[in-house]
Amino acid sequence: MELKRRRRKAILYKFLLYFFGVVVVFILLGFLSCIKNLNISDVEISGNSVLETEALQNVVKEQIAGKYLWLFPKTNILFYPQNKIKNELQNKFKRIKDITLSIKKNNTLEVSLTERTAAYTWCGATLPLLRGGVGEGFEQCYFMDRGGYIFDEAPFFSGEVYFKFYGSADGQGSYFLKKDFERLIYVKDILLSLNLKPVAVYVARAGDVEFFLSKGTASASTIGPKIIFKLEADFQNATENLQAALNTEPLKSKIINKYSSLQYIDLRFGNKVYDKFN
Length: 278
What we know:
Helix content is about 30%, strand content about 30%. With about 280 residues, it is an alpha/beta fold. The protein has two domains: about 35-115, membrane protein fhac (Ubiquitin-like (UB roll), Roll); about 120-275, Cell division protein FtsQ/DivIB (Rossmann fold, 3-Layer(aba) Sandwich), CATH 3.40.50.11690. The chain has a ten-stranded mixed β-sheet. Helix 2 packs across helix 3 (about 80-90). The protein is elongated.
């Protein structure tokens, strides 16, 4: 029995010695991690043209403030929270597309950004025809990049500065119909190649797609007729049918004459093309 007690005491002594040794090393590493030459001294932002530098710096500094386990400063260049910095910046500034972090001379943390470029606008889930007409009056729109990502509020523009999208979306930080966005752009570009001038598209919940054409100028838009598709349709076949229809009368003359009394062209019924005039 006495031998067993001695063995237990020896094991306990070794455990305590090992434990305190680990604690001492842990504390020593904590002190070493605070050495000035191992810590970020400043935050530098580059690549931003729209976003404010000070606002970006403040977010970064918030993420590197404080310590891990009350000992290890988050400013340490070996284990500063890179992923958390990137995630927080992208969550707060939807305009940011890419972020690269690097440590420069004098332990300066350089945050290099790529901002999204506005190509289109998203102006809400519902079509404002009931509120006075597409593009007429004030409406809150949001910038979109070429991939359909909605990232920032847009100021009010008069006229046809940006092509407008209407339809269901989750607002800033989301994509507009990600699965079908490239197909919608394909139709827009085809309409332009046919000497039409699409200025807006509305995607209804029922699956109808309405492209609205302009009758005016960039400074004073007047919405013309609309061209209707089904979202699930073969857009290539539908646009070929449209092109054939536009080369026949009476559509040919109406298009040349600023659409004249044309109200719509409907391409939702297979190879048949329907139109309506006032």
